[in-house]
Structures are given as structure tokens and as C-alpha cells.
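Posting this for the archive.
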Amino acid sequence: MQQDLQQLRNDQLKAGVAAAVAIDTATITLNWGTTYQRLEGFGAFAGRATPFFESARRDSIMKQLWGADGLQLNMIRGEIMHTYPFNKATGVVTIKPAGTDIDLDAGSAAYQALTVDQKAQLAQLWILKKVKERYQTPVMFASAWTPPLYMKTNPNSESGKNFNGLNYNCCSSDFANYIAGFVKAYQLEGIGFYGVSPSNEPENVFSDWPASYWTAGHLGEFINNNLRPALNAQGLNTTRIISSENAAWGTANSFLSGMNKNNVDILAGHGYVEIGDLIMGKRGLNQNPKTWNYATGNRPVWMTEASDDAGVYDNTMTGGLKLAVNMHKFLAECNVNAYIYWLGMLAIRNNESLICTNGDGSLDYPKTYDVMGQYSRYVKAGYYRFQSNLANNSTLKVSAWKDPATGKFSVVVVNPGTSETHCRLNLSGFAAAGLSSFLTADNTSTHWQQGTALQPQGNGSFVLNVPPSSVITFTGTAN
């Protein structure tokens, strides 16, 4: 009996030591006076447009992406589809089937009579108009995957394989007028595009989906000599030009550094793995993007597409933390001004989308949805990133954001580790009467689970507990 009791005491002691080891500590110091980039917002791609339009739950999906109860996204990315009818003589692009109302019932015979391309065109127009109408989403932009096929060097292929791209010998002006006509047609429908991008992943000569190969030299020439003049000729002088949207951040760094950017207003790249990783068979979200090493000329830098396009569907925090690390790296280390996820919704379960659809038609919200909200709900357009120093810890990833006009601030803490972390949060140059917290973890049953309000210690600091494998945002107001 005595031996059994001693063994029990030893087991309890070991358990206590293990519990202590499983708790990390950290010191976070926020310095109000040191400020970095201004945030322009968060968004998602408006598609796949056809399944979005045809979904019986499309209104709920839209609300959960752009509405106040959902992600509160303020940006939306569309596509300059290559299938629109185009009158070269007049420059008019027809963005919806003639005589068709955008509120056409998806189950009607009239809708079913449309071609696949016409359905996609109608669907995108409906989505953009409804998002603007319902949520006043201020930043809408669109990218071109490929010019109309008859303008390409190989008009029989949508892809960029074999370096298939714009035929510069005949079609540079035509393609520029096509983009300008697209923007003008949307303007006449009440949608003013904030910006347009003439290329989506211009280096892509491998994939089967629509793409167009560009060199850095040709893309810069096209923007300067053709696209900017074509937009101006349509009275679209304030429509910004976005470039170059390469698939990997490092590729965009190389591409843009060798490109004439005189008429590029917003510099952009995507957030997928680098080309070396891709060659080794890796895919998905870039977990270690590097800050661009050339001068951007103080122009806004946007990350315009990212998702986990690798592996089987994962709606847990394993997938959520991949996105959290990716977002932190881009926002807090690469200093981007905007972050746009790839797909808003899909009619299947897939890691490329923030909202997925189960086999019974119900919606599924992976933890990537909640992680996106940790930023998009609590870090608003117009906030500035300010200094957040982390000490006594190498696991947490911390970024701090403030609204200089109101004093509101948010601190996003990512804990990809397996240990709970106790933090001391020190405030330098300001004080706060209290903090609210919003948690995403595997065991949270609600989106952005709100915790108990936190009060400052006697010296004005706060004590924070950050659960393992979680993302938690703390919000307050400086005084």
C-alpha cells in the first residue's frame, strides 16, 4: 500500500511538472508612437460566380462574407472574363446577355437557356451589384486571367502553356480597349472599379486553366503604352492599375523589380509557395514570404490571392493556423496594405474557399473562415500597424493596429504552438481602461468567441492568457 501511495505521489509530481512545462510566458510591449503601413482592407474573390449565384443560400453566404455579422470584408475581387462580346469599332464590351435581368431566377427556363459563359457573366454582375447595394463595399477591383483567345499567340488555348500570351503584333490596343470597355460597362451598371489588373500570374506556363504569359518588359510596355491611355480615353482616369499578381511573392519581387512601373498604381503578388517549393511538390499557403528588396516608391502593396490549394479538406485549426501564419507574415513582416483571400465560397468542401458546402447543401465554416475574421472584423481599413515587441518567447506572432482618429486599437496574437502562453502586455505612450478578447481555437463553438473583459493592473499593464493552437484578438481604446 505504501509503495502504491508513493507511486501515486510520483505520478502527481510528474504531471505537475509536465503542466508547468506546457505553459509558456511572453512579454508584449506596444509602442503607440512607432507607426508602419496603413491598412486598406481585406477581401475575397467573387466566385466561383456561377455556383455562388445558383446557391439557395447565396444571400446568407454574402452576409457571412461582407455583412456586419460575418467577416465584414471591405474588398471584393472580380474577373475580367475573356468571353464577353466586344465591338472593336466602338470599344463596347457587353457584360450581360442582352435583355436579361440580373435578378433572373436560377431555376427558370430563361436562365437554363443561357450558355455557360453567359451564366458566369450574369452571376458576377449580380454578386458585385448586390454586395455594393447591401454592404456598400467600397473597394472593388478585377483581374484578367487571359485576353480573349483570338488576341493570343495561340488562339486555340485558354492556358499560358508554351508561352501562350497576348499577340503583341496585332492586339495590344485591342486588349487595352477590351479592359477599358469592361470597366466602362460596369460603371454604367453602377459599379465603379477601384482598380484593374491586366495579368493574373503572368509567369504561369504550366497550368491548364485560363492564363496568359507575359514578360516583365512586355507587361510594363502594355500598361504604359496601351492600358493607361485606353482607360483615360473612356474617362476612367481615376481607375488604378494593379500589377503584376505573380503566384509567388518572391517571383513578384523579381518580376516587378525588372518592370517599368511608371503607370502602376498598386503593386501586387499572390501568397502561394515559392517556385522552388512548387518544383519539390509542395503547394499551399506560403509560410515564410520575404519582404520585397526593391524600392516600391511608396505605392500600396497588395496580396491579392492566397489559399491552401494542397491536400485534403481541413476545417480544423491545423488549416486555420496555416492561414494565420500566412496573414501575419504578409501583414506584419511584408507590410502589405491589403490582403485578399482566393474564393469566398464553393459548392463543395475545399481548402481554397472561406465558406464551403456540405453534401446536403448546408454551409460549412472551416477555421480559416474564423481566422480571416480575427483580422477583417477587428482591424479595419484606415488602421495603421504600430510597434509590437515580443520578448521571452519565440512562438507567438503578434501584430498591433490602431485608428489614430478614434484611438481604437487591436492586437492579434497567433499561437501556433501546443502550449498555453501567459503574457504581460505593456503599453508605451498610451493607456487603456480595459480590453475585450475574441478567440478562435479548435474547441470554440462560436465564431470569434468573446471572453471576459480584462482590466489593467496597477501599473497599466494587462495579463493575457493565449490558448495553444489559437488566434486571439484583443481590442481596446487608447486614453
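The chain has two domains: 23-36+385-477, 40-378. The radius of gyration is 24 Å.
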